[in-house]
Amino acid sequence: METQSFLLEALTLAEEAASHGEVPVGAVIVHEGKIVGRGSNSREKSQDPLGHAEIQAIHEASKSLQSWRLIDCDLYVTLEPCPMCLAACQQARIRKVVYGAKDEKGGAICLGFGVHDHPKLNHRFQVLYSPMEACSLVLKEFFAKLRS
Amino acid sequence: METQSFLLEALTLAEEAASHGEVPVGAVIVHEGKIVGRGSNSREKSQDPLGHAEIQAIHEASKSLQSWRLIDCDLYVTLEPCPMCLAACQQARIRKVVYGAKDEKGGAICLGFGVHDHPKLNHRFQVLYSPMEACSLVLKEFFAKLRS
């Protein structure tokens, strides 16, 4: 129930990104039941290769909590994180990552970059796929519109 | 010769970081023979989990070149990039990464996260280890000082 509601919050951010012509991906970071960071993909507008939803949410959460260690924080994102974003979650000491749609082409898990459970790294965390059709639908609709 | 001189520029940035109490890592991004981005580790001061030298250099280079695609850009960094930073170079379309010291504990290559040559990813690039003793020495001295 909680997972669903936070994924829906992330979905709202993805839809906002789409309305600005950005590939629709959204993310929220939750600490003690409250959202402390939000992000949506903004790579085109910002011309920043790091303009992914997860990175923006991590930035915001670090500011909110005034720490680079996001202890007891969970990240909910509409699309499976890319290797950069999953590794950023590792750097930020995120506790759990939940995503609503798989990314077969660029997702860290699908590509075999499971940096979250590497035995040599000093922080390991859970990564869960919690399928939500709307998370992939928003992407399909965005690309269909682009093509037409 | 060129590699040496750009690694020395990165080393100067690493030394600056050390003087502010940060783990000494520095990076520069070079485009057509000119430095277009500089970065040094600033994680403690900024309390930003993304405060790595490479990330800062990528931000600066994207602003300089007004594009998220850092085409024909090479990154020189004193220490082997972590998985996040190597994947950020992949996202930014960096052409080549050169590092002066290995990171056995947290380096992307040492850990087996060679995101730079994954056959499924749409951008692949060179990663070169170009040993420079001063790059590891600056780290050794920093940690020796911390312990004493």
Q: What does this 3D model show about the protein?
A:
- Chain A is an alpha/beta fold and 148 residues long.
- Chain A contains 6 helices and 5 strands; from the N terminus they run αββααβαβαβα.
- In chain A, α1 runs parallel beside α6 (133-147).
- Chain A is globular and about 45 Å long.
- Chain A starts with a helix and ends with a helix.
- The model of chain A has no long low-confidence stretch (mean pLDDT 95).
- The interface between A and B is medium-sized, with 35 and 35 residues.
Oligomer: homodimer
Elements of chain A, N to C (H/E): HEEHHEHEHEH
Portion of residues in helices of chain A?
Answer: 40-55%
Measured between the Cα atoms of the first and last residue of chain A, the distance is 36 Å
Number of helices of chain A: 6
> Strands of the largest sheet of chain A, in order across it?
2-1-3-4-5
Low-confidence blocks of residues of chain A? none
What percentage of amino acids of chain A are in beta strands?
15-25%
Total E-strand runs of chain A: 5
Radius of gyration of chain A: 14 Å
Mean of residue pLDDT of chain A?
A: 95
Shape of chain A: globular
Structural class by SSE content of chain A: alpha/beta
- Determine the most extensive contact between two protein chains: A-B, 35 and 35 residues
Main beta sheet strand tally, sense and closure of chain A: 5 strands, mixed
Please give a handful of descriptors for the protein shown.
6 helices, 5-stranded mixed β-sheet, 148 residues, homodimer, alpha/beta, 43% helix, globular
Describe what is shown at a glance.
Chain A has 148 residues and is an alpha/beta fold. The first copy, chain A, has helices at residues 2-19, 43-46, 53-65, 83-91, 108-111, 133-147, and strands at 26-31, 34-40, 73-79, 96-101, 126-129. In chain A, α4 (83-91) links the parallel β3 and β4.
